[in-house]
Amino acid sequence: MVELVSVVSVVVAVLLLVVAVAWAVTGVLGVTGRLRRNRRLGVRADDSMASDEAFALANRVAGPGQIGAAAILVLGAVLTLGVDSAWSVVFGVAAFVAGLFIVGLVSALGVRAAAALPVEDSGCGCCSSTDNEAPAETTEHDDPASDCGTSSCGSCSLRGVCSDETAQA
Description:
By secondary structure, the protein is mainly α. It is 54% helix and 0% strand.
């Protein structure tokens, strides 16, 4: 029984250390601003992937928490290896759950920060011009965006269906 616990403890500790390295690297790169927008590492949500600036901000906000979660995982790995009983695995699992909670929390804060960034809306080009003015060849009645009082319908699929604010759903 002691040998089985030792083997499981070593496996859990190694897995914790691998995840800790990934979180620490991501956190350090995020804090320093060297983490480039990608589909594998960092805070990846619609708001954070909207632009390079939003991605950098989200990861700059989440970075310190990821580093802290990595430290918790390293501590959990040390406890998992240091305790020679069935409790060793419990320490590892508890550290992983705590780290996962912290990473989730700081990622949500990063997404909120990215969502707070002002979005540059240039229209889609099919129902409005990209310089936020009506195209020269259309009149006020031909421009579908003129129904909204804006220069863009918001989506090319909504072209011609804009309505004023008093319309009810």
